Amino acid sequence: MKKTQIITTVFEYDSVDELPLKEQELVKNAKEAALRSYSPYSKFSVGAAILLENDEIIQGNNQENSAYPSGLCAERVAMFYANSKFPDSAVKAIAVTARTNGSFSGNPIPPCGSCRQVLLETEERFNQPIKLILYGEKKIRIVETIKEMLPLYFEKEMLDE
Fold it and tell me: Which active-site residues does the annotation give?
């Protein structure tokens, strides 16, 4: 037996003001997107904003449905729209935030497993890391590549094995 340790590096900031201006703008866009979320069932509004290589910013938010599996997370809404509208533009960064009970979450909320896989596929597609910015009112967490969030990931080459 061999034991392997997987370590994820996360950078934490106390304030959005500590981030570069472009990342501050991305967080602002994610917060705006969360305000437009359609989440009448969970009352948990998530917003995402993607910065593309061409400097376009794409917003997305969670879209719920009374048939629960039919809804979609903010990260996938934003990513699928970005890939649809600008299929040749790599993603540089994505900011994610959440609201509940009328205010933004104090701690950052990470993407679910399905969203992590979609983000990773886009990262692999363009062979370029995607910076993940997770915004919370009390702190901001940044991960430099999606692979840090999903270290034992499934990749397309596995389909041929």
Answer: 75
Q: Which residues are registered as beta bridge partners of 100?
A: 44, 103
3-state helix, strand, coil in the chain (%, to 5): 35, 25, 40
Place of tokens 């009970």: 101
CA–CA dist 57, 46 (Å, integer): 17
Q: Please tell me the pTM assigned to this model.
A: 0.94
C-alpha 91/C-alpha 82 separation (Å) is: 8
Give the pLDDT confidence of 115-152 residue by residue, as tens digits.
999 999 999 999 999 999 999 999 999 999 999 999 88
Report helix, strand or coil for 38: strand
- For residue 85 the two structure tokens come to 């509208």
Assigned token pair, 52? 């593309």
Torsion of CA 130, 134, 74, 66, to 10 degrees: 150
